[in-house]
Design goal:
The structure is a homodimer. Chain A has 13 helices and twelve strands. The first copy, chain A, is α/β, with parallel strands linked by helices. Chain A folds into three domains: 45 residues; 125 residues, Response regulator (Rossmann fold), CATH 3.40.50; 129 residues, Response regulator (Rossmann fold, 3-Layer(aba) Sandwich). Chain A has a six-stranded parallel beta sheet. In chain A, strands 7-6-8-9-10-12 form a six-stranded mixed beta sheet, with helices on both faces. The first copy, chain A, starts with a helix and ends in a 5-residue tail after the last strand. The structure holds a DNA duplex.
Chain lengths: 327, 327
DNA sequence: CTGAAAGCGCTTACAG
DNA sequence: CTGAAAGCGCTTACAG
């Protein structure tokens, strides 16, 4: 049997209340000599607090829950780093649950696990919840926030990049470098993120009166394979002279297939990718990227979760373009 | 206020005991009509079970804890996928905690969080615990297992690759292809894994009477930068004709620096890397790898955690060499 | 500075 | 098929 507060109390010749106070470091409730004795005995008995009991009686927990997907792209890492660093500052534990990709059962399971534990807050990272699961989350009396998943609604608090700007800036960048026929690859246009990026792209093109062509937009799910497939579909003599990849991995897929076609990057084809993870730096040529502030999404999201005030306001983290060798 | 079992009981005109039984699906304790009514009311009240209370009274939890490090390499993903898939089969939740790299405080914090929650089992992924923290883990009455971290002790249950064999097989592979001067890069020889791989390397060399040279072994921490640094130190005219990278990232560092030096891979320099993650396939040339069974470590580790029997026996997951373009 | 007592929300023998 | 009651391990007003 594991030692309880009662065992410690008995061994120390004090009440359970006193043990509880000493171990919780409530000040002014006991003499230092009592405290010392209690601590020593607790250690020797191998006492470990029972968090279930504490949470039950205090009606709150020092835990924030993070729901992530098994990464089809690789940026979640940075977001998680940010969450972890910020959580530690506030003395919170982080528990992470996987929810797969578009898997309503897994989403619900992860949500319920967190709700049943009455965590302090829930961060949903790069996942689009189904309507039922969204309702479940909203119905729980728990603060929540979406990271890197902008819904088309101002009522859902999120921290993400401005995807319209991502599409716009990437396109502007290429236009300024002389490109007039620009492809857009592996974006999922069924979700808000993809739609916004396409809108930004089109705005940048039409702003300077450049025509666009549906053939230049190859949809996908942000994956490496989508990038390869898109480039194959552009063919050995692509109509476009520059391509925007929806993720670093997608852009690498484009790059590799282009090389396969003996197309020179960046001379014959420029590539810019969206995300700016370390992958962009380890491939050759290194990829020019629209870099997102993933780490900041993590820290900011965590901070706002704890902030009773502006709980509903959404926020964008800044993006920046990093020029490397692919443009 | 969140609805409790009592609220549901009252609204349904039954006792809390009955509500509890219905919601926990205990069979044979109630009529279907009662059950139906209870369920409907529970839903309409937005009742959610309080896991703290359940765990407190049942003295057990349906959760396994996973301690991981902020990845300096990228293989943990696959291990986690395996853990998740297996856990779901057993209807368990997984909570993951980050413990940084060689950070005793974070290790302890993660361990305590899990121990205080009395989780069903603890998996420690690719982390070398300090002696104190190891004692803490062993002192708790909780099954545990190390994944991808072999300690030099048969008393610690682990699931990992046979690192001696990794070193040996990688070296044999290169020797068979005619290489006689073989480098070993970015291995951390202060830990057991690195030591075993070096031992395997040396065994393979001396088995065929090949001399070795301390200059051929460049230690490191498995990182991309270690790979770059090692290759720089080999120089533009490396003494070796083949290099074994301690991780995919390290090997990519070697590769990129070699290309920088205008060294042709694989013609002038062969590279084989250890891990075999997707990174090996997205760089050009693609890397030949000693591929580890990370996913299986996850599933097997989870299964063994739950298995009351052979809890102390350690196990190796198979490795295989995948030939690609870098050799 | 210290303790007795109530109570957090649930489960489960026990008695019917 | 159903309920009253005890109890899981802790915290915290309340009383001294």
């Amino acid at each position: 049997m594991v030692a309880t507060i009662k065992d410690v109390a008995e061994a120390a010749g004090v009440s359970a209340a006193t043990v509880s106070r000493v171990l919780a470091k409530k000040k002014g409730f006991y003499s230092e000599s009592t405290a010392h004795r209690v601590r020593k005995i607790a250690t020797s008995l191998g006492y470990e607090k029972n968090t279930s009991a504490v949470e039950l009686v205090t009606q709150k927990s020092q835990v924030i829950g993070v729901i992530i997907s098994s990464t089809r792209t690789n940026f979640s890492e940075k977001i998680i780093d940010g969450i972890q660093d910020e959580a530690i500052k506030h003395n919170l534990s982080v528990i992470m649950l996987y929810a797969g990709q578009n898997n309503p059962e897994l989403q619900e399971r992860a949500l319920r696990t967190l709700i049943e534990r009455a965590v302090k807050g829930i961060l949903v990272v790069a996942i689009q919840l189904t309507d039922e699961n969204l309702a479940l989350l909203q119905g729980a009396q728990i603060p929540y926030r979406f990271l890197s998943t902008a819904y088309n609604s101002d009522r859902l608090p999120s921290i993400a990049s401005n995807d319209y700007q991502i599409g716009y800036q990437a396109t502007r960048y290429l236009i300024k470098r002389g490109h007039r026929k620009i492809g857009l690859v592996a974006m999922d246009t069924t979700d808000y993120i993809g739609q916004q990026r396409v809108a930004g792209y089109q705005a940048a093109m039409s702003e300077v009166k450049l025509p666009t062509n549906d053939e230049w937009i190859k949809v996908g799910m942000y994956t490496y394979e989508d990038g390869v497939r898109a480039m194959k579909s552009f063919g050995q003599q692509p109509d476009v002279t520059a391509i925007i990849g929806a993720s670093d991995l997608a852009a690498i897929g484009v790059l590799n297939q282009a090389v396969q076609f003996h197309i020179k990057v960046p001379d014959q084809l420029a590539i810019i990718s969206i995300d700016g993870t370390y992958l962009a730096e380890i491939v050759r040529p290194q990829l020019t990227t629209v870099t997102q502030g993933f780490y900041d999404m993590g820290t900011l999201g965590t901070r706002m979760l704890l902030d009773q005030e502006n709980r509903t306001t959404s926020q964008f983290t800044p993006i920046k373009i990093e020029t490397r060798q692919s443009t």
